[in-house]
Task: structure prediction
Amino acid sequence: MTDTLTLPQPDDWHVHLRDGAMLAAVAPFTAAQFARAIVMPNLREPVTTTALAAAYRDRVRAAAGPGFTPLMTAYLTDTTDAADLVAGHRDGVLTAVKLYPANATTNSAAGVTDIARVMPVLAAMADAGMPLLVHGEVTDAEVDIFDREAVFIDRVLSPLAERLPELRIVFEHITTADAAAFVADAGPNVAATITPHHLHHSRNALFAGGIRPHLYCLPVLKRERHRLALIAAATSGSPQFFLGTDSAPHAAYTKEAACGCAGIWNAPFALESYVAVFDAAGALDKLEGFASRHGPAFYGLPVNPDTVKLERAPTPVPDRIGDLVPFHAGETLAWRLVSPLLP
Ligand code: NCD
Ligand code: ZN
Result:
């Protein structure tokens, strides 16, 4: 039995760090596990321009401390200035652009109302080699919430990939067998991130003995067969699938509410959570690719020079950390991140 694993330090290719006091509270947890992270731009005032991203990057750096590199994204709107984003990418401020369909999720009201409106921006990004990160759900209220990702592939993503084959696309936080199959078939310009919570839980967990607001996120958990397809994709060794936690903190009282917020804060035990899945699948040898190598390869960045060590050791997860309830609250995980130390 393998009891220790040493990996090049992983990166988180999809995280929500927020701003202000919340940023100060959560950034150290992400920085304790990951060398770099793709920082989502869905602040209350979305990060829509290069200048806003540069200012937000300074705030993230201050909160996370030295040794952590935030990789910034810009939030696409119907009126995005393509030249600004391409210049931001060229100058090293922006790593990618995020597409939120309008009203798909937290702070997405300013998102794109119709993909046709942003085609010139996407074409400019394809020319510049700037990746598009996609929240892949339709917002049509008539589409069943459990089908919104699969319908998005048919209506939006598949036509887009056909029309702009040079555009580099990351299908973020995939939740279905349909998405895993789409990515695998799409070729090397298309990749996907997979969260720990979608690997651990099917939608049954949302209703186990009562409603579980701390397991509510978007895209929502799906059927068991989809979870199994995600595990197969994550442990396949394919460079098209890599780690992205979608850690999305919301104060506990905003989730334990009549209309609770979507998002799971998994940053504090993210690697311990992923390693449990790879261990249960008999695929510990595939964790290094998924966590440490495939993401840098897709983004054209070097693998991190430092290493982290995980060891088999009981790791209790607290019920709360400040105002937040972490993923796996109250459970004891079977692996521990030995270094670097938690804050
Ligand atoms: C995210 C958030 O809270 O910002 N919530 C979530 O459930 N994942 C937004 C998102 O990634 O959809
Ligand atoms: Zn997200």
Observations:
- The chain is about 35% helix and 15% strand.
- The first helix runs from residue 20 to 33.
- The domain at 10-306 is CATH 3.20.20.140 (TIM Barrel).
- The two ends are 30 Å apart (CA to CA).
